[in-house]
UniProtKB/TrEMBL annotation:
<keyword id="KW-0630">Potassium</keyword>
<keyword id="KW-0479">Metal-binding</keyword>
<keyword id="KW-0560">Oxidoreductase</keyword>
<dbReference type="GO" id="GO:0009083">
    <property type="term" value="P:branched-chain amino acid catabolic process"/>
</dbReference>
<comment type="similarity">
    <text>Belongs to the BCKDHA family.</text>
</comment>
<feature type="domain" description="Dehydrogenase E1 component">
    <location>
        <begin position="91"/>
        <end position="395"/>
    </location>
</feature>
<dbReference type="GO" id="GO:0046872">
    <property type="term" value="F:metal ion binding"/>
</dbReference>
<dbReference type="Pfam" id="PF00676">
    <property type="entry name" value="E1_dh"/>
</dbReference>
<dbReference type="InterPro" id="IPR029061">
    <property type="entry name" value="THDP-binding"/>
</dbReference>
<dbReference type="GO" id="GO:0003863">
    <property type="term" value="F:branched-chain 2-oxo acid dehydrogenase activity"/>
</dbReference>
<dbReference type="GO" id="GO:0005759">
    <property type="term" value="C:mitochondrial matrix"/>
</dbReference>
<keyword id="KW-0809">Transit peptide</keyword>
<keyword id="KW-0786">Thiamine pyrophosphate</keyword>
<comment type="function">
    <text>The branched-chain alpha-keto dehydrogenase complex catalyzes the overall conversion of alpha-keto acids to acyl-CoA and CO(2). It contains multiple copies of three enzymatic components: branched-chain alpha-keto acid decarboxylase (E1), lipoamide acyltransferase (E2) and lipoamide dehydrogenase (E3).</text>
</comment>
<keyword id="KW-0496">Mitochondrion</keyword>
<dbReference type="InterPro" id="IPR001017">
    <property type="entry name" value="DH_E1"/>
</dbReference>
<protein>
    <recommendedName>
        <fullName>2-oxoisovalerate dehydrogenase subunit alpha</fullName>
        <ecNumber>1.2.4.4</ecNumber>
    </recommendedName>
</protein>
Length: 449
């Protein structure tokens, strides 16, 4: 950090000012009340031997704007969201929940191989995405379908990816629910837990340099989503530490939904959630009620402002929710939690119900509108689903392309071997479901000769 001052003959000279988080090579004086140890700046001396005991401290508070009845807590501030925008947010949350329900059932019918629902967490993904710039770079885990939907990922895009058909942008190379969009600045989701967190820290550092080098372009940040289970991975700690020491413009959004697959938070950690870890790394941190979409939006807006402050710095937001659905279609959550617990959360409080109560309180919504919305959106989802189901699979050649710049000799041998197997056992392999059938392999070999 530098500060310009007037020098001789009016010339400007630059004086270095040490940021408060950097170590200063200053020795402590004999009568100093604070010590400047390189590893703990401004620590006061004490002659009282007392261990810090987290169990005696108050828990970090959870910020909210609406109570569970949909009532604004601070009338002077309000919700800072217009009625029309609130209606659009509500419609998107309902659409997401309908898509989740239908796709879950489709998997149970054997029409999809895998799916993950967002029940109970719709407000986190849709609310946060609505408060970001479209240019901000996003790194999702696998329960952020609402982020994609809010950014403009169409129903056709969802369905094409779920079926891994020829119109899938990933050409069928990823398992279902692992979306991505270059146009929407969303990196493709990876199955490997927590790997997106250091990726986001690195991208944020690149954005910091870009923001400095291109002052005429609106600054951007990186935003990373992950669950509290991913925060138990080493990648989480490495990412937050590098983000803090390099002061990168990033928001790390943790969805704390109570369960990491089958492991409850009581078995994951003993500290005060994930927010306490942010303060440990010297990162501005906030805990938010994830069932309150207005609190999510306000927290994300303020987090983005802080992330761009003084050239950039990381922000951690822990958004509290309850995972109403199973971890995935491969999971039966009632094997490790009581059904009554889930039903109680569904009945008592969730982001869709809370926003609906607010809308009804303002005369913006009623049962008739709800019925019409759900009927229409159900039809739209089913139309997109049935259309995508009929599209052929990507050409077989895509199993080999885009790995290397050119097909290697070893790959060429693999292509020829696959082609020969398909020729010898035509009744065993249905290649007609793939675009171009086995001929696409011939195209690949001809093209690369």
């Amino acid at each position: 950090m530098r500060r310009a001052e007037a020098g001789v003959n009016g010339a400007q000279r630059v004086q270095r000012v040490t940021p408060p988080w950097q170590c200063r090579s200053v020795a402590s004086t004999p009568n100093a009340e604070k010590v400047l140890f390189p590893g703990a700046l401004n620590s006061e001396f004490t002659n009282t031997l007392e261990f810090l005991r987290p169990s005696t401290n108050q828990a970090i508070p959870t910020y909210r704007v609406l109570n569970q009845y949909g009532q604004v807590i601070n009338q002077e501030i309000g919700v800072e969201t217009g009625d029309e925008e609130a209606l659009e947010l509500y419609k998107n949350m309902v659409r997401l929940s309908i898509m989740d329900l239908l796709m879950f059932e489709a998997q149970r019918q054997g029409r999809l191989s895998f799916y993950m629902v967002s029940a109970g967490e719709e407000g986190i993904s849709i609310g946060s995405a609505s408060a970001l710039s479209p240019a901000d770079v996003i790194f999702c885990q696998y329960r952020e379908s609402g982020v994609h939907m809010q950014r403009g990922f169409a129903l056709d895009d969802f369905m094409n990816q779920l079926f891994a058909n020829a119109k899938d942008a990933g050409l069928g190379r990823n398992m279902p629910v692992h979306y991505g969009s270059k146009e929407l600045n969303i990196h493709t989701i990876s199955s490997t837990l927590a790997t997106q967190i250091p990726h986001a820290a690195g991208a944020a550092y690149a954005l910091k340099l870009q923001n400095m080098q291109q002052p005429d372009v609106p600054p951007r940040i990186a935003v990373c989503y992950f669950g509290e289970g991913a925060a138990s991975e080493g990648d989480f700690h490495a990412a937050l530490n590098i983000a803090a020491t390099r002061q990168v413009p990033a928001i790390f959004i943790c969805r704390n939904n109570g369960y990491a697959i089958s492991t409850p938070t009581s078995d994951q950690y003993r500290g005060d959630g994930i927010a306490s870890r942010g303060t440990g790394y010297g990162i501005d941190t906030l805990r938010v009620d994830g069932n309150d979409i207005f609190a999510v939006r306000r927290a994300t807006k303020e987090g983005r402002r802080l992330a761009l402050e003084n050239g950039g710095k990381p922000v951690l937001i822990e958004m509290m929710a309850y995972r109403v659905g199973h971890h995935s279609t491969s999971d039966d959550s009632f094997a490790y939690r009581q059904r009554v617990e889930v039903e109680d959360w569904k009945r008592r409080d969730n982001p869709i119900t809370r926003l609906r109560k607010w809308l009804e309180g303002r005369g913006l919504w009623d049962d008739a509108k709800e019925k019409e919305l759900r009927s229409r959106q159900r039809k739209e989802v089913l139309v997109a689903f049935e259309k995508a189901e009929k599209v052929k699979k990507p050409a077989l050649k895509y199993a080999f392309e885009d790995v290397w710049e050119k097909v290697t000799e070893e790959q060429k041998m693999h292509v020829e071997e696959l082609r020969d197997i398909l020729r010898r056992y035509p009744k065993e392999y249905d290649v007609d479901q793939y675009e171009g059938g086995a001929e696409s392999l011939e195209e690949l070999l001809e093209k690369k000769r």
